[in-house]
Amino acid sequence: MIAPSILSADFARLGEEAAAVARGDADGAAGGADWLHVDVMDAHFVPNLTIGLPVVQSLRAATDIPLDCHLMIEDPDRWAPGYAEAGARNVTVHVEAAHDPVMLARNLRAAGALAGLSIKPNTPLDPYVELLAHYDTLLVMSVEPGFGGQSFIPEVLDKVRAARRSIDTGHLRLLVEIDGGINADTIEQAAEAGVDCFVAGSAVYGADDPGRAVEALRDSVRRTNPHRWSS
Ligand code: DX5
Ligand code: ZN
Question: Choosing from 34, 39, 136, 196, which is the catalytic residue?
Fold first, then answer.
């Protein structure tokens, strides 16, 4: 799955920017984005401020692409369920910010969304493996959260590999997402480590043709493991 991040899009034209990745080519024959990644920042959990619930509600009405809301905010226990109620497909909270992550996951699912848990680059995975049994997606941050356009941190792939092993041995059922610095040069190593869903901001919205950029990323993933991605 490819999830373009609108953090690098033109915020005055979000509907058009979503439409630009909805279809992989002009005929609509090929792919397009699987999810649209929405980075919500509160200037407290991260040193940056972006958009919040009203924009997500408007985007939900403006596009059919499922919304993947990544909440880089404090007190997600209070705020995250509103994004699920607004119709987001997946709502991801940070383990470093959640007070009662089990209850939070339950609330997100009850509101009709997938529940996602994110870990920053320096946060280890091991202490949270049991917690992940309550979640549907794991978002491994491959840059420090807060800004687009940063360089990929390859060391986080060890956490992807560990999660992949737990999934492949039947100990976890999870979709593994990676977020930060994903582009033509880095996506293949992430795919080889076992990522299911690739978030890309600047590599998509910094390109002349965002729709084509999505398909180019997808082609790179397929090349790494044609068997796994053939179905
Ligand atoms: C960073 C955000 C990312 C960001 C990725 O805090 O969570 O989703 O948009 O941007 P790129 O792909 O440019 O690193
Ligand atoms: Zn993100």
Answer: 39
HSE-up of 56 (CA within 13 Å, CB side)?
29
Please choose from 72, 143, 151 the residue to mutate so as to test ligand 1's pocket, defined by most ligand atoms within 8 A of CB.
Answer: 143
Answer yes or no: is the C-beta of 146 below 6 A from any ligand 1 atom.
yes
Domains and CATH numbers, the chain: 2-209 (3.20.20.70)
The Å distance, Cα 92 to ligand 1 centre, comes to 14
CB 121 within 8 Å of CB 155: yes
Confidence of residue 23 (pLDDT cuts 50, 70, 90): confident
- Length of the chain equals 231
Contact 128, 166 (CB under 8 A): no
Beta pairing, strands 197-200 & 114-119: unpaired
Q: Is 179 a residue of the active site?
A: yes
Residue pair 139/70 in contact (Cβ under 8 Å)? The answer is yes
Residue 92 near ligand 1, beta carbon < 6 Å:
no
Contacts of residue 187, defined as CB under 8 A and 6 or more positions apart, other chains included, come to 198, 200, 217, 220, 221
Element (H or E) spanning 138, and its range?
A: strand 137-141
Task: Identify the bridge partners of residue 119 per DSSP, sorted by sequence position.
Answer: 140
Ligand 1 neighbour 194 (Cβ under 6 A): no
pTM, entire model = 0.96
Return d(Cα 89, Cα 36) in angstroms, integer. 10
For the stretch 171-219, pLDDT in tens is 999 999 999 999 999 999 999 999 999 999 999 999 999 999 999 999 9
